[in-house]
């Protein structure tokens, strides 16, 4: 009997779904936030009723059974109930319990309380509401997997390696915030004899830093800490406070249980940026927090390398989104090669869960050790595009089949800011040339211009360089190929003045390496821009405004285009200018 596999990421934030066919090929993968246009989709199930019925009709075989694969095991509710109870006990019998600790307590309680219920709610549409499935009569079964195992599956099955070690580091899993695996010949095996049990969490530590900087945690503003860090310096007092919160012991991250942790959080929050204070007042906090994060993860991964299992490292979990650190790992931990997929956080687990279910049913199959495309999401609706041309009344809309990259490159070389929409959306949080806002990196004022006129976000936030892979060595020191914009590298001194809009305060850039076989249209666009300017780099940022997800539809693209300072919009072969 044919089977389609539907992975459902059932974390209360960043839920997502993925669909595989009977051969294990990835047909579709997308975060719930994109369809809903609701940032992070807090407490929103991935199997939205109307949406899931359309996806099954489009991607699943009509006579196939459906296997639902979820990203938390049956015992996860017990884990989060215990977390909830432990956090509640912190304030018991404490007179004048500090307000700063109450804030942390409230956040943890909310997350734990929500997560206890979320897996049970996920999948209910498919299990019970058959009327949404338009006559579908196949059998539907479900499986659940350990949360960190789904992280490891996404990370390793997308890797270019036949063998590697995998580290999963995030806010929390099922009893621990770290897990480690050996990946060999398509199989995952947890590394035995290495205890990671305990309260320590590097992901949670970064949340505390984020809050102390005055940013939001549930709204996913850890990015801002990374962006702000290069503007600050190490603060010795803050460093001592932060180092007292977390330490490494072998492959375990430990948190003090003698009251030091609570005292450290209180001390940290006493230095918290006031809501009306300038953002740069948090620069030293961000810098010091990023420094401690780097020290902890480097010590942890060095200990992993010392086991002598492999020189290839695969990294998964939310902490793998710390691109500033990813670029340093191979020179500081002993590993020779690093792989981080485009969706290493909880949205990506939908893919891992579906793959675990497929390989469980097909144990003789092995994932192909090659580049895995991130372009797995939705396409723009042809009907919406046709309706736009027919009914919008827009005069300056033209179609340029086979020539659109040349038209766009010419506009970019003139200093225009372009919304660029092509093919299928990227899976993961970063725009990789299919749902991007693009600009000329040679213009010094371009960063401030886009932040102020288009993204409406803080002035310190940097933008990424998309670079033709063959020019990587020319522009970056110790160049590492970065297909998913997953690592930050140092620009060579001699090229920084050529592309100031994508050079961050500390001389680095979170790059995306572009090869033609990975993304033909984007490669051709950058190549044409290079032919016009002798610069093989474009400024690339996600097609959204601050606080909103990356656009999902033609209607979303048009709304952002006409309510921001974008100069032109490209959707497939169509060009609209103002």
From TrEMBL:
Database matches in Pfam families: Carbam_trans_C, Carbam_trans_N
Domain Carbamoyltransferase C-terminal: 409-578
Top-level taxon of the source organism: Bacteria
Ranges for domain Carbamoyltransferase: 6-354
Membrane-spanning ranges: none
InterPro entries for the chain: ATPase_NBD (IPR043129), Carbam_trans_C (IPR031730), Carbam_trans_C_sf (IPR038152), Carbtransf_dom (IPR003696), NodU/CmcH_Carbamoyltrnsfr (IPR051338)
Gene Ontology molecular functions: catalytic activity
Stored Gene3D superfamilies: 3.30.420.40, Carbamoyltransferase, C-terminal domain
PANTHER family: NODULATION PROTEIN U (PTHR34847)
Family indicated by similarity: Belongs to the NodU/CmcH family.
Name this polypeptide is given: Carbamoyltransferase
């Amino acid at each position: 009997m044919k089977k389609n596999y539907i992975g459902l990421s059932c974390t209360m934030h960043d839920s997502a779904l993925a669909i595989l066919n009977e051969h294990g090929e990835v047909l579709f993968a997308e975060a719930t936030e994109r369809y809903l246009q609701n940032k992070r989709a807090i407490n929103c199930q991935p199997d939205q009723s109307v949406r899931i019925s359309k996806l099954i009709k489009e991607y699943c075989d009509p006579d196939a059974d459906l296997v639902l694969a979820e990203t938390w095991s049956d015992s996860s509710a017990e884990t989060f109930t215990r977390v909830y109870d432990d956090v509640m006990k912190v304030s018991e019998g404490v007179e004048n319990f500090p307000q700063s600790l109450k804030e942390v307590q409230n956040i943890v309680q909310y997350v734990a309380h929500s997560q206890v219920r979320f897996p049970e709610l996920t999948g209910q549409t498919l299990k019970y509401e058959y009327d949404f499935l338009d006559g579908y009569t196949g059998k539907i079964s479900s499986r659940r997997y350990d949360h960190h195992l789904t992280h490891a599956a996404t990370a390793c099955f997308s890797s270019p390696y036949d063998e590697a070690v995998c580290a999963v580091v995030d806010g929390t899993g099922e009893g621990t915030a770290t897990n480690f695996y050996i990946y060999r010949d398509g199989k995952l095996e947890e590394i035995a004899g290495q205890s990671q049990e305990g309260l320590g969490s590097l992901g949670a530590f970064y949340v505390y830093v984020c809050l102390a900087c005055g940013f939001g945690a549930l709204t996913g503003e850890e990015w801002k800490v990374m962006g702000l860090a290069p503007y600050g310096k190490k603060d010795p007092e803050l460093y001592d406070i932060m180092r007292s919160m977390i330490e490494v012991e072998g492959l375990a991250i430990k948190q003090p249980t003698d009251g030091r942790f609570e005292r450290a959080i209180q001390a940290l929050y006493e230095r918290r940026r006031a809501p009306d204070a300038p953002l740069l007042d948090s620069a030293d906090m961000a810098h010091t927090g990023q420094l401690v994060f780097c020290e902890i993860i480097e010590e942890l991964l060095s200990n992993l390398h010392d086991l002598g299992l492999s020189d290839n490292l695969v990294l998964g979990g939310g902490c793998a989104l710390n691109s500033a650190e990813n670029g340093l790992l191979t020179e500081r931990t002993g590993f020779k090669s690093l792989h981080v997929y485009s969706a290493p956080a909880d949205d990506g687990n939908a893919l891992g869960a579906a793959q675990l279910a497929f390989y469980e049913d097909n144990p003789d199959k092995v994932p192909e050790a090659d580049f895995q495309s991130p372009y797995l999401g939705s396409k723009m609706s042809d009907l919406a595009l046709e309706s736009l041309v027919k009914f919008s009344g827009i005069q300056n809309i033209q179609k340029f089949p086979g020539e659109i990259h040349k038209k766009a490159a010419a506009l970019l070389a003139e200093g225009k800011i372009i919304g660029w929409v092509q093919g299928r959306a990227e899976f993961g949080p970063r725009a990789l040339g299919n749902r991007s806002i693009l600009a000329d990196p040679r213009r010094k004022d371009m960063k401030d211009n886009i932040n102020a006129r288009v993204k409406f976000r803080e002035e310190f936030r940097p933008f990424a360089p998309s670079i033709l892979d063959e020019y990587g060595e020319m522009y970056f020191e110790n160049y590492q190929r970065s297909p998913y914009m997953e690592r930050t590298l140092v620009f060579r001194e001699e090229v920084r003045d050529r592309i100031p809009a994508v050079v961050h305060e500390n001389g680095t850039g979170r790059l995306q390496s572009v090869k033609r076989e990975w993304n033909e249209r984007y490669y051709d666009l950058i190549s044409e821009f290079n032919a016009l300017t002798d610069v093989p780099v474009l400024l690339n940022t996600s097609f959204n405004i601050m606080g909103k997800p990356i656009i999902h539809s033609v209607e979303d693209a048009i709304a952002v285009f006409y309510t921001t300072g974008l100069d032109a919009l490209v959707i497939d072969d169509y060009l609209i200018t103002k």
